[in-house]
Amino acid sequence: MVYLKTPEQIETMRKVCKIVHDSIEYAGENLRAGMTTRELDALIHKYIVTCGANPTCLGYEGYPAASCISVNEVVVHGIPGDRVIKDGDIVSVDVCADKYGFVGDSARTFLVGDVSEDKKKLVKVAEECFWKALEGLGPGTPLFDIGAAVQEHAEANGYSVVRALTGHGIGREMHEDPNVLNYGKRGTGMRLRAGMVICIEPMINMGTYKVNFDKRDGWTVTTADGKPSAHYENTVAITEDGYDILTL
Ligand code: MF3
Ligand code: CO
What we know:
Helix content is 28%, strand content 27%.
């Protein structure tokens, strides 16, 4: 079931999305080699709470932290813990927060210190995939045009897109319909409508698209070949005349 949002509800979502955006920016400003992912998560948690919002991930299906912090070969859903962030790492910080009854969701992949050229390019292409997906986006756009745009740009750069995980609708719940795939065939899928709010989140791998789900912790998703992965996500509203990115 796709829940359309009124313009007033989208303005409410913009407020919580700003908190999400600012918390990730704050994490980026404080990210240092030598700190643990747990320490970074603690900063994000405190930031969200100070804004009067709630870290939606904490307790979601038993998830134990405020954010997902995914280093190098970790694609998404890295549980903050004892892992020490090192010089040369790429670190995806994925945050959901809720306030006023609505959820916002965004992710950025940060470069720590002296990052290799090939990892820098991967991070850049993951962000570019997001912007490619927005080209021409608006009411009437076939949903799978989004995935097609992401896939085309990733593969043109020699990378692969993760298929086992997708973007999603968002609103009163963190995950609403529809699923927003990062691959697909242009011209297919439901037509987007004004009032839809979706999370577009390319997860781009340097090597194989295949991923493993950690059986012990139940969350951590890693690349099957151990090569790096990058993630970039924003919450995007479809408007009468196009789109509106709420987490910028
Ligand atoms: N931002 C993530 C997503 O869109 C949320 C991770 S799952 C959670 O899927 F348990 F951490 F919330
Ligand atoms: Co998301």
